[in-house]
Structure formats: structure tokens, C-alpha cells
Design brief:
transport; single chain; transmembrane; mainly alpha; 452 residues; MATE_fam; 83% helix; antibiotic resistance
Length: 452
């Protein structure tokens, strides 16, 4: 493949299929690595056969997801604003946006880590930390959220900004490097053959790997400082008042969606816990399995965002529509493949995680219901990303909160009342269908109003 001499070629003149491939393939690869390393801590700690250690990681997971919400506040918002500035041929605006986004992310990460440290006990207890596992959970959270939180947030934030100017491969390398390092460090810190630090060791491995990824991006920016608009110059913070609203108006819906995801997952788990331990275990297994098409769609969407934002801002709506259609087809195609495989082999897939026949039966039944949401989800994510790329705050926010938070809990009460346990499994397909319909209505209105 010939070298790309000018990054604008990817955005403006390169054939759509090649441009989309160059942007989304690295983004998908980094998401797949992220998926594997999200499971790494649980896997290696699980090898110890100590339920308290595994439970401690589960308790902290919600707080770890909140780190992504904080990073998206400036990462997704900054990426969209940066790409739109480049589409308007305003590199100085892009540099200002990048600097404000990075320093805003750093400040928020420090505040979040400090607040968690102060309120760690009530937060962990609320998330399910019993007296038996609290000390282990706090030790894990101290490394993952407090010490490692800024590194995790900066890693994700910089990856979004670097990808936004067309350097998708560099973004993928940074994120993937952190994930691979985490997988390599986990056994060294966790297992009895080495340091035998259990869940706390897994936290140290995660913190170090995310810090290493953040350092990689900072070194990359230093080396490429003459060729990239992504920078950390504090002097550009004097323009904060001009750009902050633009950044946060797009980053806020994305952050809210991740934050509400935590609430939705907790609510569903609470309803299922009323039935049996096996049902709760089965739900956990299904949540792991449905991460594959979810992370794939997120990867596609992350890769599309810079292309969509740039061409929307540049006024090239025909190219933007072509990019969006191709991205949706790729995301939908993969989700349909997963749907077929999951429906056909649900018991086999559930048995990969556990040998208990009751849990496997629950897992198969849950999976066959919940995966029907995948096709809607696979199109809904690119739709929301397109609104973010276009700078549409209202549309992005409404679709995001519909997907997670606003409808989930009322529907859980309703479906649980009518259909019991299995009714809870139909909530996500219903929510994703409503969100997709809403997104379609919004997009049609925008096409008429703006002739896009």
C-alpha cells in the first residue's frame, strides 16, 4: 500500500472504501485488544480459585467504566470539533481545541480520582462490596481508579484526538500496546508462581499498562510536533472560553451514555438477582459474549467519526453519506453474523465459561433473546456518532440517553411484571429499536432542514 503523503487525502480524495478501511480497521483492532484486556484481570484472578478476589474486581468494574465516561467528555467532543476545524481548513482552531481537550481531560481525571479516593467506601459498598471483600476491592480500585485513572483517561483521550486528524494507525498502536502489556503483566503480578498479589496485582498491571500507553502517545506527539495539530501547549488555554462549549456539547452525550450504562447494568443485575444465583451468573456470561459485536460497532464508529466530521464541515455531503452507509453496512454485517452464530450455538458458547448445567441453560436462553438487539445496536452507534460528528448536541444526547438509562429501568419493571425473568432479557432489544427509530426521525429532519 503506497504511503499517504497528505493526511487530507484520506478525508477528501481517497476512494471511500480505502479511506474507511484505513480509519476503521485500526480502530476495530484496538477495540478487540481492549475487549481481551478487559477480561484479562478477571481471567487471571479467576485462576486463583478465590471467589473474594474475583468478586472484588466485579465490584470495581462500574467505577472503571466511569473512567471511559470522563475520557469521552473531552476525547469524543474534542475529536469531533478538531476534525470539523480541519474540514474548514482551520488548523489553528484544531490546535487550540486539542490543547484545551487534553488539559481539560487531565484536570477532570485528577478530580475524579480524588473524589473516588475520598468517597471510596460508600461507592464500593453501593456497588456490592461486602466486609469480606472490601479491603481487596479497595486495593484493586486504588491502583485502577485512583493511581491509574489519569493514565487510563489520558490514553483514551489522546487516542481519540490522534485518530481525529487521520492518524488511525498510531492511535491503534497506542491503545493496543497498553492492552497487550496488561495481558503480559497480569500473570506476573497475580499468580502464585510470581508475585502472587491477586486482585491488587491485577490493578497494578492495569495502571502500569495504561500509563505506558499514555506515555507512548506523549512521545509520539513530541516526535511529530511539526506534523500534527494535536498538542499540549498551555498557552493555547487562553482560548478556552471560545472552544470549551463546542467540545463539551458533543462530549457530554457520549459521557452520559457511558455513565448511564453503569446504572442500566446494575439495574438489570438487581432484577435478575431476585431469581437465582445461576441466573445472575448466566447474565454475567451473556454480558461478556455480547461485548464482541458491541466493541466491533464502537470500533467502526470511532473510525468513522473523523471522516464524517471533516466532510460535513467541508460541505462534501455526498462523500459523508457514502462513508456513513459503508460504515453501517460493515457494522450491521458483523452483527448479523454474530446473531446467527449466537442463536445456533448459544449452549456451547455459555458452556465455555462454566460447567453448571442450570447456568448454561439460563445463559443460552438469555443469549438468544438479548442478541436480537445486535442489528439495531450496530446501526444505532454509527447514527449517534454521526450526530456527534455533525455537532448536533440535542440529537446525540436524546439518542444516547434513550439507549441507556431513561427507558431501561421502567421497562425492567414492566417486562419483569408481565414475563418474569425472561422479560428482563427483552429490554435491550426494545430500547435499541426505539433509539434507532428516534435517530432515524432526527436524521430525516436534519436532511430536510439543512439539505444534507
Amino acid at each position: 500500500m503506497r504511503a499517504i503523503k497528505d493526511k487530507t487525502e484520506v478525508f477528501e480524495t481517497m476512494p471511500i472504501r480505502r479511506a474507511v478501511g484505513l480509519q476503521i480497521l485500526p480502530a476495530i483492532a484496538s477495540q478487540m485488544i481492549a475487549l481481551i484486556y478487559n477480561l484479562a484481570d478477571t481471567y487471571f484472578v479467576g485462576l486463583l480459585n478465590e471467589p473474594n478476589q474475583t468478586a472484588a474486581i466485579t465490584v470495581v468494574y462500574s467505577s472503571f467504566v466511569m473512567l471511559t465516561a470522563v475520557s469521552n467528555l473531552f476525547g469524543v467532543g474534542g475529536a469531533s470539533a478538531l476534525s470539523r476545524a480541519l474540514g474548514k481548513k482551520s488548523p489553528e482552531d484544531a490546535r487550540n481545541i486539542a490543547s484545551i481537550s487534553i488539559w481539560g481531560g487531565i484536570l477532570c481525571s485528577l478530580i475524579f480520582s480524588l473524589l473516588f479516593l475520598v468517597f471510596s467506601r460508600p461507592v464500593l459498598v453501593l456497588c456490592g462490596a461486602t466486609p469480606e471483600i472490601y479491603d481487596i476491592a479497595f486495593g484493586y480500585a486504588l491502583w485502577v481508579v485512583v493511581i491509574g485513572g489519569p493514565g487510563t483517561i489520558l490514553n483514551n483521550l489522546l487516542a481519540n484526538l490522534v485518530r481525529a486528524e487521520g492518524s488511525a494507525a498510531a492511535a491503534s498502536i497506542g491503545v493496543s500496546m497498553g492492552g497487550i502489556l496488561n495481558i503480559l503483566l497480569d500473570p506476573f503480578f497475580v499468580l502464585p508462581q510470581f508475585l502472587h498479589m491477586g486482585a491488587v496485582g491485577a490493578g497494578i498491571a492495569t495502571a502500569l499498562s495504561n500509563l505506558a500507553a499514555a506515555v507512548f502517545f506523549l512521545i509520539w506527539l513530541a516526535v511529530k510536533h511539526k506534523k500534527t495539530v494535536v498538542n499540549l501547549h498551555p498557552a493555547r488555554l487562553r482560548h478556552t472560553a471560545r472552544y470549551l462549549k463546542v467540545i463539551l456539547s458533543i462530549g457530554f452525550p457520549s459521557a452520559v451514555q457511558y455513565a448511564l450504562t453503569v446504572v442500566a447494568i446494575a439495574a438489570q443485575s438487581s432484577f435478575v438477582s431476585r431469581y437465582s444465583t445461576e441466573a445472575v451468573a448466566a447474565l454475567g456470561i451473556v454480558k461478556k459474549l455480547d461485548q464482541l459485536p458491541l466493541y466491533f460497532s464502537i470500533g467502526v464508529s470511532n473510525g468513522l467519526l473523523p471522516l464524517l466530521a471533516y466532510n460535513y464541515s467541508a460541505g462534501n455531503q455526498e462523500r459523508r453519506r457514502g462513508i456513513f452507509r459503508l460504515g453501517c453496512l460493515i457494522s450491521l454485517g458483523f452483527s448479523l453474523c454474530c446473531l446467527i452464530i449466537y442463536e445456533l450455538f448459544a449452549p456451547n458458547l455459555s458452556s465455555l465459561f462454566i460447567d453448571d448445567p442450570v447456568t448454561i441453560r439460563y445463559g443460552a436462553d438469555f443469549l438468544r433473546r438479548m442478541v436480537t438487539a445486535m442489528p439495531m445496536m450496530s446501526v444505532c452507534y454509527p447514527m449517534i456518532i454521526q450526530f456527534q460528528a455533525m455537532g448536533k448536541f440535542k440529537e446525540s444526547l436524546v439518542c444516547s440517553v434513550i439507549r441507556k438509562g431513561v427507558l431501561d429501568i421502567p421497562l425492567l419493571f414492566l417486562m419483569n411484571g408481565f414475563l418474569g425473568l425472561y422479560g428482563c432479557m427483552w429490554v435491550q432489544p426494545i430500547v435499541d429499536s426505539i433509539s434507532l427509530i428516534t435517530a432515524g426521525i432526527f436524521y430525516r429532519r436534519l436532511k430536510k432542514a439543512e439539505n444534507i
